[in-house]
């Protein structure tokens, strides 16, 4: 697992701010497959990104509720209600979600991620 500050991990173009700011959460597909997909959140005018599958048992965090608790924005997994801080990925349960750096440049959103990212599903990943 790479640290978010790892300069060797490239910035991946996700899409235009004008489109991505229309929804509170979007599933971003990874070329590495389902386990590497990312949730892109747009909350309080800020874009945040983390792994799309809950660290507990793989629940779809993009379908979770987003709430502010004690000044901290959290997403709650729809399967077992585990909470994750949108900025740090930390959970009150002790679990940790991988979070990713997001940048806005020239009207586009980029996420620092090891694999290619897309708003559309990639073709079936071939088994080697």
Description:
The protein has 128 residues and is mainly β. The chain is built from one helix and eleven strands, in the order βαββββββββββ. The chain has one helix at 17-20, and strands at residues 11-16, 25-30, 38-43, 46-51, 65-69, 72-76, 83-85, 99-100, 102-105, 108-112, 117-118. The strands form three sheets. It has a five-stranded antiparallel β-sheet, with no helix packed on it. The longest helix is centred in the first third of the chain and has 4 residues, at 17-20. The radius of gyration is 14 Å and the shape is globular. It starts with 10 loop residues before the first strand and ends in a 10-residue tail after the last strand.
The total of beta strands comes to 11
What is the molecular shape?
globular
How many helices? 1
Task: Tell me the quaternary state.
Answer: single chain
Percent strand equals 35-45%
Uncertain segments are none
How would a crystallographer describe the biggest sheet?
5 strands, antiparallel
End-to-end Cα distance: 22 Å
Residue share in helix: under 10%
Structural class: mainly beta
Mean pLDDT: 92
The Cα radius of gyration reads: 14 Å
Strand order of the largest sheet: 8-4-3-2-11
One letter per element, helices H and strands E, the order comes to EHEEEEEEEEEE
């Amino acid at each position: 697992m790479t640290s978010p500050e790892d300069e060797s991990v490239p910035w991946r173009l996700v899409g235009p701010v004008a489109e991505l700011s229309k929804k509170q959460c979007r599933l971003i597909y990874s070329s590495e497959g389902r386990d590497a997909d990312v949730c892109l959140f747009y909350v309080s005018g800020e874009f945040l990104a983390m792994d799309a599958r809950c660290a507990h048992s793989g629940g779809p965090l993009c379908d979770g509720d987003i709430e502010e608790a004690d000044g901290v924005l959290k997403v709650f997994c729809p399967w077992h209600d585990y909470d994750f801080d949108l900025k740090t990925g930390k959970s009150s349960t002790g679990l940790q979600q991988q979070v990713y750096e997001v940048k806005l440049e020239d009207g586009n959103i980029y996420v620092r991620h090891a694999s290619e990212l897309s708003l559309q599903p990639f073709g079936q990943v071939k088994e080697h």
